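Kindly inspect the following:
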Amino acid sequence: MANATRVAGVLEVEVDVKGNLTKMVIEDMFKRAIAAAVGLPGEFVAKVEVSEINRSAKENVSLSEANNTSNKNLSSGVRRLQAIQTKWFEVYYEIDVPSNMDADAIIERADRIAVPGSEESQLFRDILMATDGVERVGEIISTLSAYEIGATTAPSKSPFSKHCIRSGTDSMHLICLSSQELTLPPRLSRALTSLMILSLFISFRNAKRKGRKRRREEKDAETKDAEEKGHQLRS
């Protein structure tokens, strides 16, 4: 499969866990869940990178950091390791497409993992629920739809080549990011996206300021012309 085409994407998954799941267990769990959802053996899931995220603060922490924090913050009564905690995981995956299959078929199945009630979503959830320590699987969000990154031996395209983002929570304006010959991990992709949004916001704000300044100057010029005409008429 050295020259196999790959499909990649990013999911955010809400999971209620009891106890402290190790990084190895979590990554293996998601690897098996993705394989089951797209109908392929686990060996075709070439890469899985998992980070625990704080969705309210929009910050990532590594699984080892999250586990260390959990271990240090034990209550005097009930230990946190025995409590059920709701966690969000960001899952970046890459899937090798078998030579007898079309990449679009894998992309369609992968995208349906985040579709409630779909067969792929149910298969994904079943694997997670079968893992010791997982009490509930909540919301599944596709933050980066599945896309083809070409042959594994060739440079892969950035996820931005097929990805658009919203410019604000209240607006429906979309910003489509340009394609580059880069391979970016999810955390770096999100950081770059944030920087681009900030740059666009600053440009928009500066444009508005220039527009207001120009309108003020035009209004002042009109007022000045009117005053001069008034003086001419009176004289």
